[in-house]
Structures are given as C-alpha cells and as structure tokens.
Amino acid sequence: MINELLRENIKNMQPYSCARDEFKGEASVYLDANENPYNGPYNRYPDPLQLEVKKAISKVKNVPVANIFLGNGSDEPIDLLYRAFCEPRRDNVVAIEPTYGMYKVCAAVNDVEYRKVLLNDNFDIEAFKLIDSANLNTKIIWLCSPNNPTGNSLNADEILKVLQWFRGIVVVDEAYIDFSTKQSFTSYIAQYPNLVVLQTLSKAWGNAAIRLGMAFASVEVIDVLNKIKYPYNINILTQEHAKKVLSNAAQTAKWVETIIAERKQLIKKLKELDLVKHIFPTDANFVLVKVDNANIAYNWLVNKGIIVRNRSSISLCGNSLRITVGTPAETDQLIAALKEFGAVFK
Ligand SMILES: *Cc1c(COP(=O)(O)O)cnc(C)c1O
C-alpha cells in the first residue's frame, strides 16, 4: 500500500551503503571507514540508525523502536516525506490553513503543489473538506495538533475520518503534544500504515539547539525515510545529549507543569488589558491573542526589547500576536509594556 504511493525513482533506487551498515557487531580493529584512528570518540562515524537514542525514546513514548525515525529536527522528516512521495510538478499535498510554515516551504523547494484548506471558525478541521480538495495526485495531508499558530488541538474524530477515508500519507504534527491533555496519535500507528506522527525535543523537552525530531509511523514508512536520509543525519553530540535528556523525563514533566501554570497567569493578565480583544483557546506553550492594533503593538514591544510573533498577515489571524509562555518575570515585563502601550494609544 505504502509502496504504491512512492515516487518511481525512490522505489527503484539503491540506498547508500555506509561502512557502519555493512558490518554490524563488535570488533576491536576498525579499518573500514577511513577514519582517523586518534581523537576518540569523535573520530568515529556515529550510529546511522541511532539505536540507543531510539531505545530511550521507545520507553518514554511507548512506541516500538522499529516505528521510530529520527531527523535533524522535525523539519528533516517533513522534507523527506515530500522527497519520498511527491513527484515534482505532478503530485500535490493538502494542508490546513493557517498552520506551521515549513510544510509550504518544503512544498516549494520540492516543486509540489500546496493546497490550503481553511480551518473553520473554531480553528478546527472538517474531514470532508480536506478530502474534497484532494485528488488522485494528492500524496500527503498535513495536520498539526495542537496547531501552530492557533494553539488549539484538532478534533480527534475528524482526524480519524481523514485517516479512514484518505489512501495517502496523513501527517499529524504533534510538536506541542506535551503541553496538551489530549491523547497522542502514536497509539494509532499500528492501525494506520499511512499515519505519520511528528514530535520533537525542541519545545517541552527544552532542546531546540540540539536538533532532534521524531517521526513515528509504520515500518513501511520508516524504511523509506531511512533509505533516503543522509547516512549520518544525527551527529554524536546530539545522540549523546538526547540520551541524557530522555533519561530525565521527570525534568520535562516539571517544566511542562510550570509552563502550563504560567500560561494560565499570562492569559489572566492579558484578559485584563483593554487592547486585548480575544484570547484563543490553547493546548500549547503559546497563546494567539487578538489585539487592537497588532502591527503597532508589535513594534512597541520590539522597542522595549520584547519579541513576540506578529501573525497579522496570516489567514484568519488578523491583528493577532502569538505569544510564547516564558518565565513569570518575562510575563510581567510583557504585561507592563502592553499596559504602557494601552495608556499611550488610548
Ligand atoms: C516548533 C515546531 C516544530 C519543531 O521543529 P524542529 O525542527 O523539530 O525544531 C515542528 N512543528 C511545528 C508545528 C512546530 O511549531
């Protein structure tokens, strides 16, 4: 089934065979990869399939190792899915709008048509609308839950309908799932071979700098991603650090608790401001806020050294700022600056 969706060239190609793939096992003398024999452990190429990291992720996420792909951020699997399944200038993808910008950027890089389906008034999906905009050349449907920049989770029953009705790849990007009380779609991987769930160490896990993204999917999809990735896409520094981070899931849980408590405070304080017109519901570590005059408010904040994301030019997000939940002190600075702005621009 997955094989039928693949581009012909990907189906037919031979993957690069690296030295570490050819010989698997323990030896005492490695003269197979033209490495410098000095400067261990950095002289050796890292594990191309990152088995130790995957074992740690498997425990934390409750997903078998064989169903895990690791990328240089989630951005890598996003790009690889286009390269594996979408024939340039022929195939297309369908995505919710508004959403994370990388799906569209990677479509453009890969010369693949990008079809947008506007979310409804609650920033939610209706499965039939997504299916209606697909055709026989639609290879991927991009969903993001909790969604960026809106912050809400998508209706799980509608996502399931998309999975049931659509024969192509359905991606559910769960970059913010750790901040949500909703169930992850990783539990559906065994049931739907066309489902890809994306998660990352960049948000709740506090490790955007090390670049580690996860794709959870059927073995068929994982095999394809492994076949076309750069052989050593996750460097040893990232692999070592990721193992450390994953062994301390309690720390992440504490951060999440702290950030969710602060999210509540931030929302409460924003609500008291006259210039705030609406705060959209959020399951993420940010809030989308409709204000009186987003462009001017944004520049005001920049002048105070406070950077938020101005989403005013994004569909359905007119006059809206996306504000990440920071520390209590950062919330106070933001609120003080917005109060000052409100007073000046009354
Ligand atoms: C931040 C974010 C990511 C994370 O990307 P990385 O490349 O893993 O840092 C993925 N998807 C969405 C929707 C995001 O907002």
Descriptive keywords:
alpha/beta; Aspartate Aminotransferase, domain 2; Aspartate Aminotransferase, domain 1; four-stranded antiparallel beta sheet; 13 helices; 11 strands; 38% helix; binds pyridoxal-5'-phosphate
Overall average pLDDT: 97
Give the number of DSSP strands.
11
Structural class: alpha/beta
Q: Major β-sheet, in short?
A: 7 strands, mixed
Sequence of secondary-structure elements = HHHHEHEHEHEHEEEHHHEEHEEH
By CATH, the topology of the largest domain is: Aspartate Aminotransferase, domain 2
What's the end-to-end separation, in Å? 61 Å
Q: What fraction strand? A: 15-25%
Number of discrete helical segments: 13
From the 3D coordinates, which CATH architecture of the largest domain would you assign? 3-Layer(aba) Sandwich
Quaternary status of these chains?
A: single chain
Assign the CATH class of the largest domain: Alpha Beta
Topology record:
Layout: H1 2-5, H2 8-12, H3 19-22, H4 51-61, E1 68-71, H5 75-85, E2 92-97, H6 102-109, E3 113-118, H7 127-132, E4 138-144, H8 156-165, E5 169-173, E6 195-200, E7 213-217, H9 219-228, H10 236-246, H11 249-271, E8 276-279, E9 286-291, H12 294-303, E10 309-310, E11 320-324, H13 328-344
Parallel strand pairs: 2-3, 2-4, 4-5, 5-6
Antiparallel strand pairs: 1-7, 6-7, 8-9, 9-11, 10-11
The structure holds pyridoxal-5'-phosphate (PLP).
Describe this structure in words.
With 346 residues, this protein is an alpha/beta fold. The chain has two domains: 2-247, Type I PLP-dependent aspartate aminotransferase-like (Major domain) (Aspartate Aminotransferase, domain 2, 3-Layer(aba) Sandwich); 250-345, Aspartate Aminotransferase, domain 1 (Alpha-Beta Complex), CATH 3.90.1150.10. The chain has 13 helices and eleven strands. The protein has helices at 2-5, 8-12, 19-22, 51-61, 75-85, 102-109, 127-132, 156-165, 219-228, 236-246, 249-271, 294-303, 328-344; strands at residues 68-71, 92-97, 113-118, 138-144, 169-173, 195-200, 213-217, 276-279, 286-291, 309-310, 320-324. The strands form two sheets. The protein has a seven-stranded mixed sheet with strand order 1-7-6-5-4-2-3, sandwiched between helices. Helix 6 links the parallel strand 2 (92-97) and strand 3 (113-118). The protein is globular. The termini are far apart. The model has no long low-confidence stretch (mean pLDDT 97). Pyridoxal-5'-phosphate binds at residues 73-75, 100, 144, 148, 173, 175, 200, 202-203, 208, 213.
